[in-house]
Amino acid sequence: MIRIHTQPAIRFEGQRPGTSGLRKKVGVFQQPGYLESFVQSLFDVLPDATGKTLVLGGDGRFHNREAIQVILRMAAAKGYARVFVGRGGILSTPAASAVIRRRGASGGIVLSASHNPGGPDGDFGIKYNIANGGPAPESLTEAVHARTLEVEAIQCVEAPDVPLDSDAVVRLGATSVEVIDPVADYAEVLRGLFDFDAMRRLFASGFRLRMDAMCAVGGPYAKAILEGELGAPVGTVVNAQPLEDFGGMHPDPNPVHAADLIRHMSGPGAPDMGAATDGDADRNLIVGRNFVVTPSDSLAVLAMHARKVPGYRDGIAGVARSMPTSTAVDRVAAALGVACFETPTGWKFFGNLLDAGLITLCGEESYGTGSSHVREKDGLWAVLFWLNLIAVTGESIEPLVRGMWREYGRCVYSRHDYEGIATADAQALMAGLRDQLDALPGREVQGMRIAAADDFAYIDPVDGSVSRGQGVRVVFADGSRLVLRLSGTGTEGSTLRLYLERFENDASRYGMDASEQLGAMVRAAEELAQIRRWTGMDAPTVVT
Ligand code: VG1
Ligand code: CO
Question: Is 114 a catalytic residue?
Answer without folding.
Answer: yes
